[in-house]
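Researcher: Let's continue the batch. This sequence belongs to Pilus assembly protein CpaE, and it's 429 residues. Same format as the previous ones, please.
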Amino acid sequence: MNAPWKAGARDPFAAYLCDDASLDVLRPIAMELGWQPEKCGKGGLRSAVQSLSIAASPNILMVDLSESGDPLNDINALAEVCEPGTVVLAVGQVNDVRLYRDLISSGIHDYLLKPLSPAAVRDALIEAQTAFSTPKVVDTGGEKRHVSTAVVGTRGGVGASTIATSLAWLFSAEDKLSTALLDLDIHFGTGALSLDLEPGRGLTDAIENPSRIDGLFIERAMIRANDNLALLSAEAPIHTPLLTDGGAFLQLEEEFRSAFDMTVIDLPRSMLVNFPMLLADVNVVVLATEMTLASARDSIRLLSWLKSNAPHAQVIVAANKVQAAFSEITRADFEASIERKLNLSIPYDIKASSNAAKLGQTFVHANRASKAGTAMRELAQLVVGASENTDKAAPKKALLSKFDFKTMLGKKDKADAAPKPKAKAKAGR
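Model: Same format as before. Here are the structure tokens for Pilus assembly protein CpaE:
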């Protein structure tokens, strides 16, 4: 919107606050930042609109919404008189997440809750200075590309969680991509343990109150492992059953798509069976297996299931903990049984696993130079490469709402009818 003609040059800062207590907090900080304390005036948002309709808007503007009966409508009126590039901070006394989200969506830089604290005001003003001085990125109109990867183990103990945490760490620490790690083993997950973190209550709260899930919830509930990696996991009491229709998990995935470049889901087989819609927007599935007869059988079943329920996803089959001399089945027999080639083989390294546990680090972080660590880096590259082939095949986000979850949950598992491992596999036992 084009603002009306204004007289005079732009000031670096101006504030319109309704109460003396807030002004007493603000003025010393404004002086500390080199601004004139006279620019911190009495009055709310409507006073700001009246003043700025005849004067140039400042670089940074702080307005009080406390006396506004319709904050969003009044913010729109403020937009009419503000020049492009003005960074606006709102102050109010209503602690409501929906209002916060609506204000941010309308273009407000931040919303501060009364009573104001000097530390919060100082941080907000410094961030506003940075936002004003940072060159704006031109939006080309293209959608943000997000890659979602699910890691599924054919059997318990094959190392799916080790692979999931290592992939998440590689994407975040080495590729510098903002990454979300979602550990869906609600009762016995090891994602937080592998990163030497406490799991917190974020995932449990999300399951119990799906309506709370939004961008602000994600920001507060996820545990930071490094600058680019955030974890959401749980350690629910084992006497507490999992009671959910899966809707919370879908909402979490949707928020991750907006907030992160990558999502890595540690997806237990039981969750895959109970909530097949979790793979609706997954680009890549890493099927972690081992060279045993049981894993060969379950690889066949899971590959058949994925073909029927997630045909859009690229599937990578990775054999983990491989000991060529001690395997139940040779690689050739295993591949013949599952009727496809293994994409990757990760050697067994008990010393490396022990080292990671002692250091409280992911396997690949603690063992960068090991053969197993090198193989996991190769797996990360395969995931990124495979995801590039799924952009056109992946279902559109709008289609997600059309799924009938109850019907999907009741769908018969076609994988049960999959062929059993061939005789060649049995012979290698």
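Researcher: Any comment?
Model: The chain has a mean pLDDT of 83.
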